[in-house]
Recover the amino acids of this structure.
């Protein structure tokens, strides 16, 4: 360990709140494409992409130019005034999606907070208040008080009780359980097309379609949380497109601005009536810099045909991992959509495998003790994916 790294670790442990525990003992000085580089200029293939954030990889020329050009002109003003890039981004997201209206904030948790408020406000402003929201077990919707209340994992809620009331939880992909839980007192159902934080578990198409039908029958709104699955991650701009379902409210963040913090809530005109002037807002949300970055990401996805690349490279990775499973007893299952992949292990070796990958210049994620998660940049090429498979296979052979 070099002296500068040790100095950073010492400063972090002394001054930064230890919410991340013992971090991976490395820091990066720069990146290019799908690679990050440490202080010794050693390259690391970034197969976790800032946890599904760096859609265009690192130092992408279209993104860095957009950020640089905008920073030279105006970073922030206020939502008291009209913002050029905000209006353009809202128009583009509407034109690329089911939505009629967009609200911008700073993160996925904030987008989900807005969705929860909007759903309750929708019924309040109709003079027929409803507050109950149904969500799925093993879901993850954020770390604020309302979004941990919506999260179907007790470990995120228990230390911070009492949590926000009005949430109930049903098994994921269980149509009968969802039908039993939703009635005329339900204001919304919130679901992820793939539960990324519990191990990458995709939703069944029939389940999502049933959720739409149940919401229609009871008048509840359907909120689709695409914080992790959105912005091309699964091969379509939003994953719900592959499930044949149109939501009332959709939340997005992570990859939307390629690393610049932004969140978005996309809604139909009907759902938008849940907010009246003054009901919600954001100081930083939708500022000129973040919106210019998001516009650059969306343009690159279109111009560079990254959705097709995500589909083809994602299929290659899944097939290669399935083939590896046949010869490697450590892999028990491969799940995912596009370039969001979960590798279930037969032994609790996820942290050990992640550490071994780091030593070999591979950055992967781990969920619990038995799942490796991949969420690489959408620019990943077939050749780079093949290099990863070869290196990952070698790593697995060293794990006992």
């Amino acid at each position: 360990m070099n002296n500068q790294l040790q100095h950073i670790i010492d400063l972090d442990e002394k001054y930064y709140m230890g919410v991340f525990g013992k971090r991976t003992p490395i820091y990066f000085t720069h990146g290019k494409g799908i690679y990050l580089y440490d202080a010794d200029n050693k390259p690391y293939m970034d197969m976790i992409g800032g946890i599904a954030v760096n859609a265009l990889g690192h130092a992408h020329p279209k993104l860095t130019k957009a950020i640089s050009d905008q920073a030279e002109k105006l970073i922030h003003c206020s939502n008291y005034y009209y913002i050029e890039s905000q209006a353009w981004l809202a128009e583009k997201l509407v034109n690329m999606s089911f939505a009629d209206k967009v609200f911008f904030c700073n993160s996925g948790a904030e987008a989900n907070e807005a969705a929860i408020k909007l759903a309750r406000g929708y019924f309040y402003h109709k003079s027929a208040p409803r507050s109950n929201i149904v969500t799925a077990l093993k879901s993850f919707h954020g770390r604020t008080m309302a979004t941990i209340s919506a999260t179907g994992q007790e470990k995120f809620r228990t230390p911070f009780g009492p949590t926000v009331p009005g949430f109930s939880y049903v098994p994921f992909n269980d149509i009968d359980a969802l039908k039993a839980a939703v009635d005329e007192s339900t204001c919304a159902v919130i679901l992820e097309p793939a539960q990324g934080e519990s191990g990458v578990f995709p939703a069944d198409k029939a389940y999502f379609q049933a959720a739409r039908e149940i919401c229609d029958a009871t008048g509840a709104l359907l909120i689709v949380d695409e914080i992790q699955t959105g912005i091309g991650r699964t091969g379509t701009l939003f994953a719900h497109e592959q499930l044949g379902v149109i939501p009332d409210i959709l939340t997005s963040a992570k990859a939307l601005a390629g690393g610049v913090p932004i969140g978005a809530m996309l809604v139909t005109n009907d759902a938008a009536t849940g907010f009246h002037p003054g009901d919600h807002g954001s100081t930083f949300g939708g500022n000129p810099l973040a919106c210019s970055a998001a516009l650059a990401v969306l343009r690159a996805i279109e111009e560079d045909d990254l959705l097709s690349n995500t589909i083809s490279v994602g299929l290659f990775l899944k097939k290669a991992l399935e083939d590896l499973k046949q010869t490697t007893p450590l892999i028990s299952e491969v799940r995912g959509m596009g370039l969001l992949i979960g590798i279930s292990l037969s032994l609790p070796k996820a942290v050990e495998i992640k550490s071994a990958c780091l030593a070999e210049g591979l950055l992967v994620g781990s969920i619990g003790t038995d799942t490796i998660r991949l969420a690489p940049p959408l620019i990943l090429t077939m050749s780079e994916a093949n290099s990863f498979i070869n290196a990952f296979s070698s790593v697995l052979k060293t794990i006992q």
About this structure: The mean pLDDT is 97. DSSP finds 14 helices and 17 strands in the chain. The longest helix spans residues 306-327. The first strand starts at residue 28 and ends at 32.
